[in-house]
Amino acid sequence: MIPEGWNDRMPWVPGNRWDLVAHRRPRPPRVSVIVTHYSQPDELARTLAALARQDHPRELLEIIVADDGSPRVPVVPEGVRLVRQDDLGFRAAAARNLGASAATGDVLCFLDADTTPEPAYIRHLSRLPALLPEAVTVGRRRHADLSGLAADEPIEAIGPRHELTEPAWLREAYARSGDLLRADDRSYRYVISAVLACSRAFFDEVGGFDETFSSYGGEDWEWAHRAWQSGAVLAHVRDAAAWHDGPDWADRDGVDRADEGNRQSLLLSRRIPVEGSGARGVLSRDADLLVVVPGTPSPAAAFVCADSFLAAYPRSAVTMDAIPPAAALDGDPRIRARADDVDARIVLRLEAPAVVLEPDALRAALSVLAEGDIGELRLMSSGGSLVGVARSRRAARRQKRWGTSAGHASAEVAVAGLHVMRAHPHVEAWLGGWGGADRFV
Is 121 exposed, middle or buried (0-12, 13-18, 19+ CB in 10 A)? Predict the structure, then answer.
């Protein structure tokens, strides 16, 4: 849905609708390319040679090599900046942040030293971030065996002649989502930092890569999730092609894919508590849903409300203006008296204490907030009364940024088994699982 009054000259689009500005060609922005490197002199030379052949205006192109403590200082051509950090293990996240801190461009493009761009790469990848400050673009990473080939041979010629298999899971995900046009809370998995671009302003607002990641992989997905939650407009730019020297990580010899994959999944499960990524029962570091209960409910209403929401949505937190004494709620860290310190993906503000009798119906209703279009949801009882309003963190941050709620749609849905409770519900009936809604409403 396109909001009334919106036009394609605005610096934002509704939802994730980057297609609405697909026809626009902005004035070329000043771009800083940050090339992350560690002990790959041949690959670095090839990538820097390819960057010298870009069709983006040379005076608007800044190249920075961010070296992760290579034993030998990398050799870079005149005009290319070199920044280095100590070798304290695999610190690609910190190296990227170091490069970004030295950059002066309006658009940041991140490349790995072993990923060589075709001549139009920068022009294509920087277009959307130049139009939309929230745009995060990911190029097409292709694979080729480039070993032994001269660094100055055009990559657009030698890449296809030595091409290796492109990861099917990634290609299929881009096709299925319309190049991420239909993105959602789990689309972070398709954002690859080796071929990534965003505006400098948005990178600074989201924050850099998490430097606690100190082994291969995961830091780009964590950053992409954080960016999406901050309102990123995700787009895969298939015309922005760069060639990785060698196969995809999953196809490399000597890699224990199961062990490495498990390590990444365990790390991310604590940082990304969304359905399909977070733990099913183990508490995550952050709440995924915050339920805000107004007023000071009776001990019975406070208990049934909190217990029913936590049972339906274990990765949630429940806050009340004041937790009544004798409510049997003091043993659960997910229940607290203030909401100020909870930064949840979804905030549900109840009109009054409510009970969830059909958890699947509530989860299905809230699932639409995982997508890019709907940011606010009015939850109604089956009888037609308002129970609460749920709002996504993504929508809240975009509204704060642009001063309008037109960047997301609102919807209303009746949720079976969701009811505002009477002041003194029947606790024994709740605990025993007997009786119907008449015991609570």
Answer: buried
